[in-house]
Design goal:
The structure is a homodimer of 452-residue chains. Chain A is mostly helical and 452 residues long. Helices cover 64% and strands 6% of the residues of chain A. The first copy, chain A, has a 3-stranded mixed sheet. The first copy, chain A, has a 3-stranded mixed sheet with strand order 4-5-6. In chain A, α12 links the parallel β1 and β2. In chain A, α3 packs across α5, α8 crosses α10 and α18 runs parallel beside α20. Chain A is elongated.
């Protein structure tokens, strides 16, 4: 199998059939398209066409398509569906996906939809799920799971899980609870099949079971599941009662989303935007960081003005030609240092004290800086720059590189210690502050050495 | 559960017990530590201590620890183990992990280890797995799976899978093959339990089964599995014969690694390095991009020299104070544009023609550029800059922003069309080229307007 590649041709064919209201050839055309791919198609259609297509399918397929749509497209389509229609879709979904969709509705519509849901226990489950923070274990978990009481026999258990299993898409483990619903262990389906039918569950279950608290942060859950290679993890409350479970597919989505956000943030793009978003949304995501860059750049105007008199010196004025080089070096080195630290903090490999970390960075930046400075001296010789000027520029650049590396290393660590996401420090923030600092340092050191 | 936090205290206690060769308190101390956490501990110990600890455990735990160690630590530890010792570990592992470890040995040792393996079918499996590219489906898959022949009865199938299941850590699906080993469908364990015992598999299996070709690219497999929420996917050869299966935990690792590499690449750090790597390795990863920045910066020295005469003008010389601002703007805008495109290309959301994409970016950069230019004029007024100079600077900056955005957008798209990873375009590459281009454009436009 290959991932689906949406062609302009298919898109046009679908749009034409919708326009002509030719339902049966339309249904035939899209019958074998996976719901994740149908969502891609609807993302590209206009709203009327999308709503038409959504209403064409039976609710089992529609509900799955809804979960896969782009947030903004889904929001618009949900606005065009009645409370009853949404309730029908919700009932088809796993509770975690259902709660995610409900969470996007206004408070009033949310309540109206829940009132429309005929299955009371589902309605209760959804209300419970909606009460948790979106990015907590509670917000990620689904209520569907297969559990066994420790006092059941193997036969009873097999019968029960056949029933429970009907509502659960994938059975990973059977969780074992006591009479007070406290999670005490797990039972693998494989073990269950191989045990004599009269044995009690309490005699065959595995008492060791990993779980996370319902208030645990989603990122931490992702770390636990990926580190320990778990495909599902049960969620418990403070009384250790079993509330739900989180499956790896939700974690894969979370990991991908966070990686994307960090990547964009490092490039000075804030928030969860995509190339296909509107110009307004993209501007909102980009302008704040550009504004920061502007402030920084205007700051460096003042610094350079302070060294205006250098311009009248016949050979020292060449220092001004080197400002973009210095700013670029300060920025590049700083971004490298901070990115490595941010990544290390995310993977828990940044250990030891800040001092040790800075000493290592000092060594590293000295090596890089010396090599680059020597090359700059060679450049100076080749372009007939006065030798004392070449040496001054190289020495100042070396200092700038070292300082930029130390700033790039320490800011993320300090932010992290104060509980602020260090990812914010990479990119424009570091570049801008290092630009200003680097340029000032460069001219200041040059001034001391050359004595102007 | 929480992720394990390695404390200096625990590390010291372990090191002390190793030094004193107190094996039984040492074993007791680490007994309940998960192998992924043990690997973290060994990553931090020195080599002798690490080897000592590795040899202390039974091979079941050791082998799992080996798979989780940092690459460089594992390489060093493997060098200290005999061929026989490695073979014993290999036999404990799933075939995909075993092949990964074997793949890190020299060709000669690899063969020696395989000769030591007593189980011939495992040795054959490993030789097969080693023949595939590391990042292909074949390189990712494990040979362990549970399969059923279509002509078996439910009873026979249950018996067979109990046997097969002993060697398979997690049973996701039972794959159904015909007499020629061709994959024809799947069977869920749940369905199998609920069917009458005399039914034939061919009457109850689900003929729809997703699979990937053994030569498929690993990134594409990751895309397929995460898009379609698959927890395992069977791998077939060109004759559609079932060869192995890939599970989601391997894909989670792949997704994380690739996200990290892209993140670091965008910050100008090449390759798979971590904060804890040696200074030499980190220098190798960082210096090439800094060198590129140096070349770019020296290039801009030439450009600025070309506008040297502006320095003698009483008020136009202020243009030089604005070069860091212009370079920063060109760099920031370019990096933003390219990051959004790179992300979009990875998610297949960059559709439509290059022209449409550039038109959108034109609109976006005009909005951002106008706002920033107006602010710059305000700044000029506030700092008593001559009004024609303020306007010139703002207009040039607007042009630079627009051009930088267009360059940032088109380079990744062009690279992608030529089959080059567009991720390489973000970061230093775009910053450096936009620096030079931006500075040149800024002075050139200013020259035209002001007529110096």
């Amino acid at each position: 199998m290959k991932t689906f590649q949406l062609s302009e041709k298919l898109l046009k064919k679908i749009a034409d059939l919708i326009q002509a209201k030719k339902n049966s050839p339309l249904k035939k055309l899209v019958k074998d398209i996976h719901f994740a791919d149908m969502a891609e198609i609807i993302n590209e259609l206009n709203l009327d066409e999308g709503v038409y297509l959504i209403k064409l399918f039976d609710s089992e397929k529609t509900s799955e398509i809804l979960t896969e749509l782009d947030d903004d497209v889904r929001e618009k389509i949900l606005k065009r569906l009645s409370v009853k229609e949404i309730a029908v879709e919700i009932e088809e979904l796993d509770s975690d996906d259902a709660a995610d969709i409900l969470g996007e509705l206004s408070d009033q519509r949310k309540e109206e939809v829940i009132l429309e849901i005929s299955d009371d226990s589902l309605a209760d489950d959804l209300k419970e799920l909606l009460s948790y923070e979106e990015n907590s274990a509670g917000g990620l978990m689904a209520k569907e799971l297969v559990k066994a009481n420790e006092n059941w026999t193997v036969t009873k258990c097999l019968k029960e899980i056949k029933q429970q299993g009907e509502y659960v898409t994938r059975v990973h483990s059977i969780y074992v609870v006591d009479d007070k619903e406290k999670l005490i262990g797990r039972l693998s389906l494989k073990d269950l099949i191989t045990s004599p039918s009269k044995k009690l569950i309490k005699d065959i279950y595995i008492p060791k079971v990993d779980s996370v608290n319902v208030f645990e942060d989603g990122e931490e859950v992702a770390k636990i599941m990926s580190k320990y290679d778990l495909e599902a993890i049960p969620v418990i409350n403070n009384k250790k009662q079993l509330l739900g479970r989180i499956t790896i597919d939700d974690i894969v989505d979370l990991i991908k989303e966070e990686a994307e956000e960090d990547y964009l943030l490092a490039a000075g793009v804030q928030g969860d935007v995509e190339a296909d978003d509107s110009i307004i949304e993209l501007t909102k995501a980009r302008l704040p960081w550009l504004f920061l860059g502007l402030i920084g750049g205007l700051g460096s105007v003042f610094i350079l003005e302070g060294f205006e008199e250098v311009m009248s010196h016949p050979s020292y004025k060449a220092l001004f030609f080197f400002t973009p080089l210095i700013a670029a070096m300060a920025g590049n080195v700083g971004v490298q240092s901070s990115a490595i630290i941010v990544q290390g903090l995310a993977n828990d490999v940044v250990k030891g004290s800040l001092i040790n970390r800075l000493l290592k960075e000092l060594g590293l930046s000295l090596i890089n800086g010396l090599i680059l400075s020597l090359l700059t001296i060679v450049f100076g010789l080749a372009t007939n720059l006065p030798i004392e000027l070449s040496i001054t520029i190289s020495l100042s650049m070396l200092c700038v590189i070292v300082v930029a590396a130390l700033i790039g290393t320490s800011i993320p660590i300090i932010l992290d210690k104060r509980g602020i996401d260090p990812a914010i420090a990479t990119g424009p923030f570091i570049t801008t502050s290092n630009d200003i600092f680097g340029i000032f340092l460069f001219f200041y050191i040059a001034k001391i050495i050359l004595g102007f």
